[in-house]
Each structure stands twice: as C-alpha cells, then as structure tokens.
Amino acid sequence: MTTALLVLHLFVTIALIGTVLIQRSEGGGLGIGNSQGMGAFMSGRGTANLLTRSTSILAALFMVLSLTLAVINRGAVTGGGHDILATPAQTTSTQTAPAPSATSPATVPAAASTATTTPAPDATQH
C-alpha cells in the first residue's frame, strides 16, 4: 500500500509542478490568443479558472498524501522512539589486539635488540 501511495504521490507532484509552471503570473496560463471558437473554456479567464482550480486540487492531494505517508511510516523505523543522534556510533570492526608472544619486542632486553622498534598502538586506547 505504501508503494502505491508513493507512486501516486510522485504523479501528483509532477502534475502539480507542471500545472504551476504552465501558469502565467497574470493568471492567463494556456489562454494564448483570443480564439472565441472554443468558447469560454479556453479563453483567458476560463484557462485561469481551470489552472487555479487544478492547482488547488493537486495541492490538496499532495498535502493529504504527504500526511498519510507520514502517518503510515511513523513506526516503520526499527527500535523507534530513540534519538539516533543521542547514541554513539557503533563500530563494525571486530579486530582484537594479538596476544603478546615470548619473542615480542616488548619482552626482548634493550641490549639484545639491535633494531629500534616502536610498539604498535594499543587498540583499546583512544
């Protein structure tokens, strides 16, 4: 049902954008020219009324669909009710420091070691 509402919402949004872009700032819209052969439906005044009415209807549909989608999806988040910014980020790294062996540089006396080595930083310190 959510997918159907999202698709309908997309179509309403595109139609609303198109309807708003078609309108002229004076309210003329598609009423280019004064052809009286089609009657008052596509005259300047008739087109303005048609575009104004369709913009109002599409805007109302857009708002209703937006609120409906928000109400439907308000509990869709797993573990809802908590603030994601309040908890620290969890690391996905599960590496642990290797256990020290008998030949590690930390246990070799300084006089026996000819090369200077620096121990690896401890993974538990920040």
Automatic annotation (TrEMBL):
Any matching Pfam family: SecG
UniProt keyword annotations, A-Z: Cell membrane, Membrane, Protein transport, Translocation, Transmembrane, Transmembrane helix, Transport
Cellular location(s): Cell membrane
Compositional bias per record (Low complexity), positions renumbered to this chain: 86-126
InterPro entries: SecG
Region (Disordered): 83-126
Chief localization: membrane
Domain of life per record: Bacteria
Transmembrane segments: 51-72
Keyword Protein transport set for record: yes
Record membrane topology: Multi-pass membrane protein
Keyword Lyase: no
Similarity field: Belongs to the SecG family.
Database matches in NCBIfam families: secG
Function: Involved in protein export. Participates in an early event of protein translocation.
Annotated protein name in UniProt: Protein-export membrane protein SecG
Organism: Acetobacter sacchari
Classification of source organism: Bacteria, Pseudomonadati, Pseudomonadota, Alphaproteobacteria, Acetobacterales
Gene: secG
